Batch of 2 targets.
Target 1
Amino acid sequence: MRKSVLLTAAALIVAALNVTAQPADGPPPDQGDGPPQHRPHHRPPPLPIVTVLDANGDGTIDADEIANAPAALKKLDKNGDGQLTIDEYMPPRPDGTNGPPPGPDGKRPVPPIVAALDLNGDGIIDASEIAAASTSLLKLDKNGDGKLTPDEYRPMPPRRRGPPPEDGDQPPGPPPDDGSKPAGPPPRQ
């Protein structure tokens, strides 16, 4: 009987400690000290440049929207100087900068739609580039159907790092040795 009283008391103490260990207004379970929990994939908001070009909001920039591209792009010109700078055509990031995060080389990748419009690659879509927008956008039309779907104007997602290749799966490289040349260094004498 004494053992059951001690076990019951210990269980109550442990339960009370668990209840008081986390305040009611504490962080959600996925923000604790442990490793981050898996979250569903979150797609970033569309680029402002895509939002103005896709007038009907269906995700496809159709032939009429491509034809109207110069007028649509002018809506992004916040300061009325006739050109679009990165702060006008790219959304602000949580860190306060505009554009995508830097890649492994430290450079920020340019979305395909911006690269197509910014003909000289200086990061500014100037008045002449805005005027040529319809022609420039058609260069992204991979299948020649006269419209741009998200897979044509959105950047490709970063390659997923996976497990190393299994035996037999060789990365691309030079063709296997055909025996006409020595493979590797000559044997030691």
Target 2
Amino acid sequence: MALTTLDPSTVPWLNLLSYFFGGIFLANAVPHAVSGMMGRPFQSPFAKPPGQGLSSSTVNVLWGFLNLAIGYLLVCRVGDFSLREAGDVAALGLGGLLMSLFSARHFGRFHGGNAPERPGRST
């Protein structure tokens, strides 16, 4: 029994799926890498409890750059990603947007972003 490989030209949705997940990983890299580089602790999967407790800035830099590397592999090493192809950019952008919205809601619980104080209102 011979192993066969999928020809990306016959299954273009696999490339789009890869770009979508690449957008998720690239968007997830940003808050971890930035928080870590600023020397601030931030939630990560390695904290206790995972995703809620704080991890050190070093852990967040490493986690952010691992996400960056995975995003790079999914976008630049799968298929033939092109900024001139609307479908490629839409898949990448949608993944990044969804991850960003999820992160805003999830981390907003811990940092006050879901219910910001308004000027002139006392709580």
